[in-house]
């Protein structure tokens, strides 16, 4: 790998000061990346910039049109800067986001990101997902050692438990094989390759119904809006200077029919009365315009099956409820972790040593990923309406707790923003909300009924967060340094 063949190479220094060279198209690739969404495109640019010869195979290189992946938290933006990709947010009419506004029963509270310690450019960003992806693909393609091609990967090439590349169908329909010592699969939530690389346990707690509202002013400009509605949350955030995305969460997998008008009726009669008055007319107009989109909300904890010659990343590997907009932040954080892990490696040909070393990726990513994943799952359950008095008391307590301001506001928002990836802080704030809720039930005079509701509230809070932590991995989440892989050294250069 990186051999200096006469007439074919462009040699240059990586940021680490090591001389690497790109090679001619006749040579095998160093890395094959399956998928060129947010994770795949960002990874292609990152590894290409490090000097690896990267081949990206994407099913469809035209601009995607999705209703999720439109809000990047400040922590994700910091990772974008770290990867040198922040300019991909230019010229796509991206909007700056400075925090959230929370609405409940006619009351509202503004929660600002704690950005005082950062450069003035640091904030969240919201945008059209497809425009952002196209900008990253274009930037990756400017590197001479990155090749993007359109094709459908049908299978991984496996020999005695080692992945050596992929088989794919080209745009013209020809079935071909591509080989590389490292294959990274990041082909999104619909991945058909993940089964051999992880234990997929995909849960679908709800679906999003997406609308675009045109030329309307949100109550709090440059903020995400979360309405604690019945039966579950409604989201609003700008995706351009003239458009606002609305996502209506509907619990379960069964949706009202779009074809016979049930969905439009549901949105007008059940949802419209619960949206802020400032956006009501634009919301109804968007329904009548008829461009209603739906998307199942998937949740899948990261349960890797370490495999020689392959890694799994992005939504193909790990998903959380999109309520908190954390998916891109997790993916970009994972890419920073992987880039830093790969830096000492000259090549990937000693697959046993490299594979053993790269197992540390799954541990090193945990603090950021598990914090964002757990928060998303727990908040979704707390924010949904419930017939249970104890759970409604928990929802009320959550709204009032973050409305207190100070650390009660900045602490949870820093977790949400990806600025403080601390599982311990998350658990402390979660139970602080529960205890605050119990305290309100017992003041001024506790009755037996209110004491019982308080007990059920604490039991309900435990029943929400502990199963999520168990799925994420308690030891990896809170004690990652106790894993041998956490301290694993890269293979010696001689063995590569």
From TrEMBL:
The record's annotation in Gene3D superfamilies points to: FAD/NAD(P)-binding domain
The record, for Pfam families, names:
DAO, SE
| Squalene epoxidase domain ranges (all copies) | 179-452
Coiled-coil ranges (or none) = none
- Cofactor(s) required, per the database record: FAD
List its EC numbers. 1.14.14.17
Question: Main EC class of this protein?
Answer: oxidoreductase
Purpose of the protein: Component of the triterpene saponins (e.g. ginsenosides or panaxosides) and phytosterols biosynthetic pathways. Catalyzes the first oxygenation step in sterol biosynthesis and is suggested to be one of the rate-limiting enzymes in this pathway.
Q: What's the name of the protein?
A: Squalene monooxygenase
In its UniProt entry, the species of origin is given as Artemisia annua
């Amino acid at each position: 790998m990186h051999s200096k063949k006469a007439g074919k190479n462009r040699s240059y220094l990586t940021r680490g000061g090591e001389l690497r060279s790109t090679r001619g198209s006749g040579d095998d690739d160093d890395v094959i990346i399956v998928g060129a969404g947010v994770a795949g495109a960002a990874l292609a640019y990152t590894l290409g910039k490090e000097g690896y010869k990267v081949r990206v195979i994407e099913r469809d290189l035209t601009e995607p049109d999705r209703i999720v992946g439109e809000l990047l938290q400040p922590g994700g933006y910091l990772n974008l800067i770290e990867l040198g990709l922040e300019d991909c947010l230019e010229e796509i009419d991206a909007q700056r986001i400075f925090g959230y506004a929370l609405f409940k029963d006619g009351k509202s509270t503004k929660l600002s990101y704690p950005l005082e310690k950062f450069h003035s450019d640091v904030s969240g960003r919201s945008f059209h997902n497809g425009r952002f992806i196209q900008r990253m693909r274009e930037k990756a393609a400017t590197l001479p050692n990155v090749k993007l091609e359109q094709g459908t990967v049908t299978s991984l090439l496996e020999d005695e438990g080692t992945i050596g590349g992929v088989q794919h169908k080209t745009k013209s329909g020809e079935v071909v094989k591509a080989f590389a010592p490292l294959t990274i699969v990041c082909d999104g939530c619909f991945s058909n390759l993940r089964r051999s690389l992880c234990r997929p346990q995909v849960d679908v707690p709800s679906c999003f119904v997406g609308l675009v509202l045109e030329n309307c002013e949100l109550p709090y400009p440059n903020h995400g809006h979360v309405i604690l509605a019945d039966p579950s949350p409604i989201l609003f955030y700008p995706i351009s200077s003239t458009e606002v995305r609305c996502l209506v969460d509907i619990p379960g997998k069964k949706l009202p029919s779009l074809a016979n008008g049930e969905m439009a009726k549901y949105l007008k009669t059940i949802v419209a009365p619960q949206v802020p008055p400032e956006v009501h007319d634009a919301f109804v107009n968007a329904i009548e315009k008829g461009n209603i989109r739906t998307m199942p909300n998937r949740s899948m904890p990261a349960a890797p099956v370490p495999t020689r010659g392959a890694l799994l990343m992005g939504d193909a590997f790990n998903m959380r409820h999109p309520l908190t907009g954390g998916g891109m932040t997790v993916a970009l954080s994972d890419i920073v972790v992987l880039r830093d892990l790969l830096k000492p490696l000259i090549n990937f040909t000693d697959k046993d040593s490299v594979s053993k070393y790269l197992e540390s990726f799954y541990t090193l990513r945990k603090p950021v990923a598990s914090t964002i994943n757990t928060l998303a799952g727990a908040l979704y359950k707390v924010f949904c309406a419930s017939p249970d008095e104890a759970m409604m008391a928990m929802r009320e307590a959550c709204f009032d707790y973050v409305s207190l301001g100070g650390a009660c506001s900045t602490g949870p928002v820093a977790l949400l923003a990806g600025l403080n990836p601390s599982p311990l802080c998350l658990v402390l704030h979660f139970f602080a909300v529960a205890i605050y809720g119990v305290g309100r039930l017992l003041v001024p005079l506790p009755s037996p009924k209110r004491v019982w509701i308080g007990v059920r509230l604490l039991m309900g809070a435990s029943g929400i967060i502990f199963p999520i932590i168990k799925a994420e991995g308690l030891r990896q989440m809170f004690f990652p340094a106790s894993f041998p892989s956490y301290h694993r050294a890269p293979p010696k250069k001689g063995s590569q």
